[in-house]
Write a structure and sequence with these properties.
Arc Repressor Mutant, subunit A; alpha+beta; four-stranded antiparallel beta sheet; about 35% helix; Alpha-Beta Plaits
């Protein structure tokens, strides 16, 4: 059972969201707790799934993935199996940075990072549109990421 987060837990989460590489001693000083207490709190939040992992935010242009496509996918079949199958298929594509099952005019929103429009087209044809249950695909290409990877306001 997940326990409620207190002010100290939220303060620790705010610090980790800004820089997950902070040393325990630095976090402890800022939340007025001992490093061992902070370590225990972080361990508990990891066990409870509050903290799901740690990532590095990478500049797509500098790693050859300069094009970010936001792709809306609609399926023609809305059974649990069809939705689960598409979710698993899309999540297995390395270029899919995010796969969201959503409500509204489409079923899924995919954030796809590729090198160029030709690479996107190839991925679209070979890994998304080849699914017979895909009925419609709509794509927007990101011109500028104005805010990305922002922490949750706690």
């Amino acid at each position: 059972m997940r326990q409620a987060l207190d002010k100290t837990d939220l303060a620790i989460l705010n610090l980790l969201q800004k820089d997950a590489r902070l040393e325990l001693a630095v976090i402890a000083r800022q939340v007025f707790k001992s490093p061992s207490s902070v370590s225990e709190r972080i361990r508990k939040m990891q066990e409870q799934g509050v903290i799901r992992g740690y990532v590095a935010i990478v500049d797509g242009e500098k790693v050859g993935k300069a094009l970010l496509a936001v792709t809306h996918v609609s399926l023609s079949v809305h059974t649990k199996d069809a939705l689960d199958d598409f979710r698993l298929q899309a999540s297995a594509i390395p270029e899919v940075a995010m796969c969201l099952h959503v409500s509204g005019p489409c079923d899924f929103i995919l954030h796809i990072a590729v090198s160029c429009t030709e690479a996107y087209y190839q991925l679209l044809m070979e890994k998304i549109c080849c699914n017979p249950k895909v009925s419609h695909v709509d794509t927007c290409f990101v011109l500028m990421a104005c805010k990305a990877g922002a922490p949750f306001a706690l």
